Amino acid sequence: MTKAKAEDLDFDTLGFAYHDLPYRYHAEYHNGQWGPGELSTESNLSMSEAAVALHYGLQAFEGMKAYRRQDGGINLFRPIENAKRLQRSADRLLMEPFPVDRFVEAAKEVVKANQDFVPPYESGGALYLRPLLIDTTPNIGLHGGQDFTFVIFATPVGAYYPGGLTPTSFVTSDFDRAAHGGTGQAKVGGNYAASMLPGKKAHDAGYSDVVYLDPIHHEYIEELGSANFFGITKEGQFQTPKSPSILPSITKFSLLEIAREQGLNPIETSISINDLDQFAEAGAMGTAAVISPVGSITHHGQKHVFYSETEVAPVTQKLYDRLTAIQYGDEEGPAGWAVDVPLD
Predict the structure, then answer these.
(1) pLDDT tens column, 98-139
(2) Alpha-carbon distances of 223 from 109, 144, 209, 220, 284, rounded to whole Å
(3) pTM above threshold 0.85
(4) How many distinct helices (H) and strands (E) make up the chain?
(5) Which residue numbers are catalytic?
């Protein structure tokens, strides 16, 4: 694949696509320890046909972004939390966790080396980083290995909503995203593989994505596609589901804190699909869009409309504006949220 060149990219029209950038970070775990790691120009990975990651799914990943500030500098958003979550995912799959401090420094190195690909402030885009941890041990037996590869690569992405936030529609599914007591709280590929078919069925039916209900009762909201759900009650409270099979989103916990700051008395709680009438607004939270306003949810053929199917609700807009202002460095956020990337 041809290496991308910054001068060939139109940062105002970027979608969410992969571009083979000049540099990525690569580290190997062998003989009981992580090697030093380094920036690499090689975008292809080499591994045995018997690698555990290929046969038994021992791989985990993260999604994070670097943002160009108005002053030309670059912020990473809460990279320590991504590092910690990858460690939890690794523990769940019996893989060797990558050290938190090295993760953060590696992310900074990748951003600095590819700084020409960080979209300009006014574009609303960002540099998306994909940390990846895989078990490369050649092994046919069903057990974890002792050789691992850690990579962080990057690709520039455009504004998720080029024309501004837009409400979308969702539909409930009979499929489960993850099993109760399974790998739902880990960011692992198998969870996303399970979501491909129900997501396609929803798209084919004209919906943005799927509302996954809890795998035991099929009543309580879990996630919306690959994002966490939130609702604003008619009394003005921020509510988001709590369940052992939900991925703990960094965007979600950031918005919980912002909601507290804005007097929304936020809570994590069980939310029944039969109680949508209590919400004046709703949205999905995740790294890609930050917030995707939810215009409606259809369940068993019954469509529930929240604030509007065409206009963004006021509290949702306020939450989005505050979080993105912190990410792009326009407003001061809690300590440690916006991490400067030294560019020399």
Answers:
(1) 999 999 999 999 999 999 999 999 999 999 999 999 999 999
(2) 33, 29, 10, 10, 8
(3) yes
(4) 6, 18
(5) 187
